[in-house]
Amino acid sequence: MHCYFNLVSPHQTIIDEEGIAVADADEARTFAREAISEMVQDGVAEIAHWRGWEIEIQDACGTVLFKMGFGDLLPAEVQGAEVQAVVAGSSSEGRTFAYDQAA
After folding, report:
1. CA angle 98, 101, 103 (to 5 degrees)
2. Per-residue pLDDT tens for 67-87?
3. Counting beta carbons within 10 angstroms of the beta carbon of residue 85, is it exposed (0 to 12), middle (13 to 18) or buried (19 or more)?
4. Which of 39, 44, 72, 99 has the smallest C-beta neighbourhood within 10 Å, fewest atoms?
5. What confidence tier does 38 reach under pLDDT thresholds 50, 70, 90?
6. What residues pair up with 21 in beta bridges, in sequence order?
7. Cα–Cα distance between 6 and 12 in angstroms, integer?
């Protein structure tokens, strides 16, 4: 089966024009997890840029097989670091705190 792995946010879509051949939906799900993991390995600063994004897997007919959010695969310690950054930023008077400053 041939699948396409589109990157989708509320404001933008990056279409996978080529796709890859996979044995079944389980292999497509494994590939999607690995792809997301590779894309967010750079740390909290890079992860923040992908907040709200999903990888949307479609078959050759364009049917969406499933979606997987980038946040679904973040390790708990990384999610905790982001929460701490938000809390720290919100307690600083008169200061705007961006996620990418947390790293």
Report:
1. 135
2. 998 877 655 544 444 444 444
3. buried
4. 72
5. confident
6. 2
7. 11
